[in-house]
Amino acid sequence: xxxxxxxxxxxxxxxxxxxxxxxxxxxxxxxxxxxxxxxxxxxxxxxxxxxxxxxxxxxxxxxxxxxxxxxxxxxxxxxxxxxxxxxxxxxxxxxxxxxxxxxxxxxxxxxxxxxxxxxxxxxxxxxxxxxxxxxxxxxxxxxxxxxxxxxxxxxxxxxxxxxxxxxxxxxxxxxxxxxxxxxxxxxxxxxxxxxxxxxxxxxxxxxxxxxxxxxxxxxxxxxxxxxxxxxxxxxxxxxxxxxxxxxxxxxxxxxxxxxxxxxxxxxxxxxxxxxxxxxxxxxxxxxxxxxxxxxxxxxxxxxxxxxxxxxxxxxxxxxxxxxxxxxxxxxxxxxxxxxxxxxxxxxxxxxxxxxxxxxxxxxxxxxxxxxxxxxxxxxxxxxxxxxxxxxxxxxxxxxxxxxxxxxxxxxxxxxxxxxxxxxxxxxxxx
Length: 430
Description:
It comes from Pseudoteredinibacter isoporae. By secondary structure, the chain is α/β, with parallel strands linked by helices.
């Protein structure tokens, strides 16, 4: 086997191929690499394997579907699992988010939500409302729509913003909120910038605001107390849709089924993916408020929304998602992050404060970040710690000068103790 033919995503390809990290198998909380070393997964893969790895019940559901219905077109045809899944998701979601549009990724879910927002405005006679307001340090996937509303410069600078977009300031305020546990105290006033952007651009031109309730790839940036509620109020005041990108947060990551429920703020649309199938089969969804669906569908005859994907509501993905929902509910995983394991992870993370060079630690539920002082070095501290951690049998995520953890929801205190030992060893060795 050669490595040179595969152009790997979000990877320093030359570096990887000089020193590859190859994963051979996975079970529960652990990967096994090609050298036979066991690696503790403290990132749930890419924020997605919430149920841990290689769950037999999910694998069997996928296998049964592959044997009986390996594929079904979703344009003008249907299969029962997609309707059952949509009904179950609607039951779990807050408010009137009762309509599910299925995609094959979070990136596709974001682009779909943006198109739904614009289609809704057209359907009600407000075609001028096309601008999208996003936020600095936001990650909304890598398709053209998500890239256009993204707020991480390295992800957007080569592609320009094809859509009319403006950005809210991010809410990371280390000077006032360093080492916060849970919601930071300060920063609600940053929501008022939305009011200023409305006055600048005109509410008649703004279709929607899209935010991650907790910014993931931007560095686990947790909203200040009252911030999301204030965004909701301003959107309501000016007839602007509010979209929550819950690709990372949904399915129990923050201690409730969604961050919307955890923070008691109901958006008009919600994107989800990752935990929907616990990473087993690619799938995403947009949960849409009844008023939006009804407005678009009632506005025309025939095809009401010219959008969709070859693999929308793929039978194998629906089977996986239904099996995952069964496990989430049976094992009470949607709320597990509220319990002792979430608090124990918080304690262990904040003990790292005693190490030199750490300027912030922040966490909520089973999400956490440790931020280091910027170094006079071409390699950010996040990347350095990530590499050392892998050598020590630990998978974390490096993001600039931060490291991030987002473990599977099944972790136990013993796994957190193992993480503690290995992360201390990794940081101190640099």
